[in-house]
Amino acid sequence: EFMKASWDIEEVQAKGIQHLASFVKDKSAFPYLLTCTEVITLAMKIHTDSLDLQVEGCTLLLEILSQALEQGVMMALDESVASCLLHTVRKHSENEEFLSILCTLLMMVSASEVAAENLRKVGIIPDLLSILRRFLHNDEICFSCCAVLWSLAVSETNADQAVLESALPVTSAVLQKHLQNGVVAESACSALWALALQGCLTDSDYEPTAALLLDAVRMNPERAVLVKNGCLALASLVRLSETAALAILLDSKGSGTELIKDEYHLHSNEPGVAGALCLLMDEMVQYDEVMLNMRSQKMEKLLSEIKLQFPFS
């Protein structure tokens, strides 16, 4: 009530946010804090020029969202809140430290389908791409932005085709830059998978994207989620183009079929990985030349192993 009575006074909003933040560690206060998200975001929207207030507001929202996720409460922020966050992104698009916090917040918010839809409606994707281009070196920002892209792009009812197509080179650049950082590479692989599902690639993209995904899997062989998502992304590419299938077979850094075998043996107890590898092989055998090559590599033996390991799946 105190904050609502004095929207225009920055000091009142800052003190209000600080006071609310003092309740974060008290678990019994959580249900009440949940009702404060709109007040916090409106204070941020009205006082966008105040970086201190933005940082404190974002940090508090992150705390509330973290607790909500821990307790299985999904917070679907409405369109006005999404619009406010976009406004904040644009106002402070040069501040790397603040954007690290804000992009983490956006990632957590976008876990809700409703919130992801609202972020998409207000047109946040071009801003995310702009942030990625500017801060390609920042692993936190790259991880968060790719995760948001995945959430926004994975929906089948997506009207932002042209915008999503412009996301491919940036997402590829993130993966290329952070190939050895498993956490970021995993997030970028997921985003590339979503872009492939949406048909955002052209003929000239299939070969380099397939090679890049193979590199990501090859450099992070132990990360089951990355391997799974990388293979699902590859399967989406192969479904669209024989070029991608041939790129997997003839990769300059080693045979893709050998990599498939190695990854299965490394993750033979992971049904998700086995399923992704089977889907990839299923897409590859639709091309005669590729199927002949896979036969010569004795892939039937691998399939028999998988069938024995997962007889009821």
UniProtKB/TrEMBL annotation:
GO molecular function: ATP binding; protein serine/threonine kinase activity
Protein name in the entry: Serine/threonine kinase-like domain-containing protein STKLD1
Coiled coil: none
Domain of life: Eukaryota
Gene3D superfamilies attached to this UniProt entry: Leucine-rich Repeat Variant
Protein species of origin: Urocynchramus pylzowi
Catalyzed reactions: L-seryl-[protein] + ATP = O-phospho-L-seryl-[protein] + ADP + H(+); L-threonyl-[protein] + ATP = O-phospho-L-threonyl-[protein] + ADP + H(+)
Annotated keywords: ATP-binding, Kinase, Nucleotide-binding, Serine/threonine-protein kinase, Transferase
Entry's EC annotation: 2.7.11.1
SUPFAM superfamilies named among the record's database cross-references: ARM repeat
